[in-house]
């Protein structure tokens, strides 16, 4: 039996008040400014199939190879360097350690279980969206703290938003790799991390500043990143 996970409804102001994006806050307004494409990303075919356990293995492999390449870019190191307060640097360092301890082993175990060789991994070309995303982030990390924290917040928040669909529906994936990917992006720890990023966006970003364009561009790239998984599978 397939446990179907319904699509997320259209975004509305205050959806994420429970994580600090209260109605009218900077984070809430940025979220609403990208609502249409955000919704398409979190309800994309890739996410739907992953949550319903109907995703073909070759698509999952293609996506996770891309995502491991994306993960290895070192964006957290740049955020730590740019963070204006020591307590923020410390929070980011702790999260970076969490990624190294929890997310990196997910990738390496996955590649082993799905028989992806080092050679296959190394030789897989980056998809156009991943290449564009990595190039864009290379620009963002050389920009301002305000832009970088907006980019980081947006990408993590969007991941929590798609994973939350399955928690809301009470569906647990039966394919271990699907469940593992959901578990990394939904739960107390990931919510707390996203909430801390939302608080930083509320504190530092501006809806009238360049951060607004950063937020929308990240949502756009995230949507395309999911779509590209099918092209190289
Ligand atoms: C492309 C992308 N964006 C965000 C995430 C969540 N860390 C991710 N794993 N991959």
Automatic annotation (TrEMBL):
Pfam families of this UniProt entry?
TENA_THI-4
Q: Which residues form the Thiaminase-2/PQQC domain?
A: 36-230
Q: Which Gene3D superfamilies match?
A: Heme oxygenase-like
SUPFAM superfamilies per record: Heme oxygenase-like
Cross-referenced InterPro entries, in alphabetical order?
A: Haem_Oase-like_multi-hlx, TenA_E, Thiaminase-2/PQQC, Thiamine_Salvage_TenA
What's a single GO CC term here? cytosol
Q: EC number(s)?
A: 3.5.99.2
Q: Report residues binding substrate.
A: 67, 103, 156
What the record says about family reads: Belongs to the TenA family.
Q: What name does UniProt use for this protein?
A: Aminopyrimidine aminohydrolase
């Amino acid at each position: 039996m397939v446990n179907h996970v319904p699509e997320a409804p259209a975004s509305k102001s205050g959806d994420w008040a429970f994580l600090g994006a209260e109605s009218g806050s900077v984070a809430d307004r940025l979220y609403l400014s990208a609502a249409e494409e955000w919704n398409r990303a979190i309800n994309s075919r890739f996410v739907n199939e992953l949550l319903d356990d109907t995703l073909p293995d070759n698509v999952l492999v293609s996506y996770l190879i891309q995502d491991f390449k994306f993960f290895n870019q070192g964006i957290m190191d740049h955020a730590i360097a740019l963070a204006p307060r020591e307590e923020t640097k410390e929070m980011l360092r702790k999260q970076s350690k969490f990624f190294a301890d929890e997310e990196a082993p997910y990738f390496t175990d996955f590649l082993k279980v799905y028989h992806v060789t080092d050679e296959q991994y190394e030789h897989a070309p980056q998809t156009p969206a991943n290449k564009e995303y990595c190039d864009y982030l290379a620009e963002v990390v050389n920009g301002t703290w305000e832009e970088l924290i907006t980019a980081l917040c947006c990408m993590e928040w969007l991941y929590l938003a798609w994973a939350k669909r399955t928690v809301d529906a009470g569906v647990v994936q039966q394919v271990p790799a699907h469940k593992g990917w959901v578990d990394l992006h939904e739960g107390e720890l990931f919510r707390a991390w996203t909430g801390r990023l939302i608080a930083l966006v509320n504190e530092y970003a501006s809806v009238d500043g360049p951060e607004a364009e950063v937020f929308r561009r990240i949502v756009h790239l995230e949507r395309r990143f999911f779509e590209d998984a099918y092209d190289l599978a």
